[in-house]
Design brief:
The structure is a homodimer of 207-residue chains. With 207 residues, chain A is mainly alpha-helical. Chain A folds into two domains: 33 residues, no CATH class; 163 residues. Chain A is 74% helix and 6% strand. Chain A has a two-stranded antiparallel sheet. In chain A, β1 and β2 form a beta hairpin. In chain A, α5 packs antiparallel against α6 and α6 packs antiparallel against α7. The longest helix of chain A has 35 residues. The first copy, chain A, is elongated and about 65 Å long. In chain A, 37% of the residues are buried. The N terminus of chain A is likely disordered. The interface between A and B is large, with 64 and 64 residues. Chains A, B: It is found in: Cell membrane.
Chain lengths: 207, 207
C-alpha cells in the first residue's frame, strides 16, 4: 500500500486529501483503512484458539480428577493389625486435589458457551471480562491444589529424615505413580489456564 | 507512510494538514466528546490502585520470605545422637517457598516503574499487557509455593497416621507457628495478584 501511495501522481492525491477533510473519512483512510477486518479476524482466531485450549484443559483437569480419584492400592500381605492399603482419601491433601480439579473441570465445561459467544462476537467485552476473571480464580485453585499434592507426592517419594517422615513409595509404588501422574495433569491444566488468561488479555486490548 | 507523505510537495500537504486539523476536531466533537476525560480518569484511578496493591503485595511477599527464611527453632534438650533443631531448610518445600517468594518480591519491585508508566499514560497498552502476563506467571509461582508449603504445614500440624507421618508441632510449636504465618502471608500476596490481574483486564478493555 505504501509503495502504491508513493507512486501515485500528485494530482490524484489532492482530491483524496480534500475528501479527507470531511471528518471521519480521514480516520479510515489514513490511520485505520485496513484495520477493522484484520482486527475482527485476529480476535476471532484468538477466540477459536481459546475454545480449543479450553477443551484441552478439560481433558487435563478431568484426567487429573479421575486418576487421583481412582487411585487405590492394596498390598498383597497384611499383619494382625493392618491391611496395608493406600487410597487417595488417606491424604486430606489428595481429597482437596480431587475436589478442586472436579470443580475446575465443571467450570471449564460451563465456560464453553461463553467461549463460543466470544467466537461469534469477537468484539464483545462482557463475556471476555467474565472469562478472564473466573479463569484467574480457577487457575489459582488448580495450581494451589497441584502444588499441595505435589509436595505430598514428593514427600512420599523421598521422605524427610529431619521430621522422621519416611518414604512410602517403596511399598506403594503404583499409588505413587498414579498420584504423580495426576499432579502432572493438573499442572498442565494450570499452564493452559495461564495461556487462556494471556490470550484473553490480548483479545481485550484496544486495537 | 508518514515519511513518504512528508516528501509530498508542500502544495498538496498544506490543505491536507489543514483538513487533518478539521478532521480531528470533527472526530473528537462527534464521537468522543465526553469520553476522553471520563475514560482517562477511571483508567488513571485503576492504575493508581494497581500501584498501591503492588506495594501491599511487596509487603506480603517480603514478609513471607523473611518469616520463612528466619524460621529456626532449637529444642532445649538433646540426646546422644541428635540435637533437636528445626529450620526451614530441613524441608525442601520450604526452601522452594523462600526462593519463590524472593523471586516474586524482586519481580514486584521491578514492576513498580511499569506501574508508574501506566499511571502517567493510562491508555498505554504495551506496559499493561506486559504486566498482566508477568503477573499471571508470578501469581502461579506464588500460589504454587504457598499451596505446597501449606500442605507440609498441615502435615506438621496433624500428621498422617496412614503413612506413619507424625505431627511435629507438639515439639516444634514456634517453628510451626512462624511457617504458618509465612504461608498465610504468601496466600495474601497471591490474592493481591488475582486483584491485580482483574484490574489490568479492566484497564485493558476498550472503553
Amino acid at each position: 500500500m505504501e509503495s502504491e501511495r508513493g507512486n501515485e501522481p500528485t494530482v490524484i492525491a489532492m482530491p483524496e486529501s480534500k475528501a479527507n477533510g470531511k471528518g471521519k473519512a480521514i480516520l479510515s483512510s489514513t490511520t485505520k483503512v485496513t484495520e477493522p477486518p484484520k482486527a475482527g479476524g485476529y480476535k476471532k482466531g484468538v477466540a477459536i484458539f481459546d475454545f480449543i485450549l479450553r477443551l484441552c484443559a478439560i481433558g487435563a483437569a478431568l484426567g487429573a480428577t479421575a486418576t487421583m480419584g481412582t487411585t487405590d492400592q492394596t498390598l498383597p500381605f497384611f499383619t494382625q493389625f493392618f491391611q496395608f492399603q493406600a487410597e487417595y482419601d488417606d491424604f486430606p491433601v489428595f481429597m482437596f486435589f480431587v475436589v478442586a480439579n472436579a470443580i475446575v473441570s465443571a467450570y471449564l465445561v460451563l465456560s464453553l458457551p461463553f467461549s463460543i459467544v466470544c467466537i461469534i462476537r469477537p468484539h464483545a467485552v462482557g463475556p471476555r471480562l467474565l472469562l478472564i476473571m473466573l479463569d484467574t480464580v480457577m487457575m489459582a485453585l488448580t495450581i494451589a491444589s497441584a502444588g499441595a499434592a505435589a509436595s505430598i507426592v514428593y514427600l512420599a517419594h523421598t521422605g524427610n529424615p529431619n521430621a522422621n517422615w519416611f518414604a512410602i513409595c517403596q511399598q506403594f509404588g503404583d499409588f505413587c505413580q498414579s498420584t504423580s501422574g495426576a499432579v502432572v495433569a493438573s499442572f498442565i491444566a494450570a499452564a493452559i489456564f495461564i495461556f487462556l488468561i494471556v490470550l484473553s488479555a490480548f483479545a481485550l486490548k484496544r486495537d
